[in-house]
Design brief:
By secondary structure, this protein is an all-alpha fold. The protein contains 18 helices and no strands.
């Protein structure tokens, strides 16, 4: 049964990832084989992770922050963290991640939370604590919301809850760009059929995923809590999460130096300074206006970075083709989108916790 499950998941990567060439699970490169082994054992080689595999560094960084925040047992139940994942995915309009983590919620018997997220009705959640945490997650794109000023969790729980929210604000952006709209093998126009399929997924494959035991981390240690940026200090109560986010923020800084022209970085950061969580205007006129003074590769990097940060669902074949004409290679495509996504998520993170 495990072999069949692995084959099904591996087939999802082949069929669902677009614009990139993920490393095949049945023939991993020497650089990534240890990562693939641990991810398969403790979670599964699902497309939202394997899409990063063309860059071993990015794959490892994403896996570390996901593993330490969501998967490793800590102070917060897995079902609560899955609720945060699904709620964040819903406000980011990422149907793929909503379906996937609703399935995980079904696997933990939190059918009430799934119903509440699909119906956008928090009264359906049976216990007050989970309801408050889901409401907090739904407010993470609304700076100044009262619930963000008084979070429904303790500083000791913050690394897992905020960490999970941060991870999914990031993964949602990348999934919107590089994956299809649902993890289900067929598209369901009917919401009723879609919900039935998600529940079946929750009773089968998702149940196996959430019940897998994690072992000792077999990867080399990376990141230093002492080097954690000030806006990520919420992670400090948990050394492993602080270490993972320290490593990932340093990795993103390296990607910026290597792949993001100074003029592009300045434009993206200035726009993010102004952004307050709102949806961007229809169309891409705002992108064209911001990049009007650029040309060549700089222009295409800036366009893609702005969309990845602020409107990833608008990245389409034309945007990617224009980018690849100037900047060929999976590494640069991943680096630009990941850097822009995480830079935006760092801004969102400043709204989540009063230090």
């Amino acid at each position: 049964m495990t072999k069949i499950e692995n084959w099904m998941v591996d087939d999802m990567t082949e069929k669902q990832v677009r614009y990139l060439n993920p490393v095949p699970a049945n023939s991993p490169t020497p650089e990534i084989v240890d990562l693939y082994t641990q991810v398969r054992r403790e979670f599964q080689l699902v497309p939202p992770l394997t899409l990063f595999s063309p860059s071993t560094e990015l794959f490892g960084g994403v896996w570390r922050v996901l593993r330490e925040s969501l998967i490793i047992d800590g102070n917060v139940p897995r079902s609560t963290l899955e609720a945060v994942s699904a709620a964040v995915s819903s406000i980011n309009a990422c149907p793929y991640c909503v379906d996937a983590h609703s399935g995980m919620l079904h696997a933990t018997s939190r059918h009430d939370v799934v119903d509440s997220i699909y119906a956008n009705d928090m009264s359906l959640i049976q216990d007050d604590k989970t309801r408050r945490i889901v409401q907090w997650a739904l407010a993470t794109k609304t700076p100044g919301a009262a619930i963000l000023k008084s979070p429904p969790f303790t500083p000791e729980q913050a690394p897992e809850i905020i960490g999970t929210a941060m991870v999914f604000h990031f993964i949602n952006r990348m999934v919107s760009i590089f994956l299809s709209e649902s993890p289900m093998p067929v598209a369901f126009e009917s919401i009723t059929l879609r919900k039935m399929a998600v529940r079946i997924f929750g009773a089968t494959m998702a149940k196996k995923i959430v019940n897998r035991e994690t072992g000792e981390n077999t990867l080399s240690e990376a990141g230093s809590p002492e080097q954690l940026p000030s806006d990520l200090k919420w992670a400090m109560p948990c050394e492993s999460i602080a270490r993972a986010f320290s490593h990932f923020s340093e990795l993103m800084a390296q990607q910026e130096v290597q792949y993001i022209p100074v003029a592009v970085g300045r434009i993206v950061k200035k726009q993010l300074d102004l952004w307050q969580g709102e949806d961007m205007p229809m169309g891409n006129d705002w992108v064209n206006k911001l990049t009007d003074d650029l040309s060549g590769a700089d222009k295409q990097i800036a366009k893609l970075a702005l969309l990845a940060a602020l409107a990833p669902y608008r990245v389409n074949d034309a945007v990617v083709s224009e980018f690849q004409a100037e900047c060929p290679g999976d590494n640069v495509l991943l680096a630009v989108t990941a850097w822009a996504s995480f830079t935006a998520v760092r801004k969102v993170g400043t709204w989540m916790w009063n230090s």
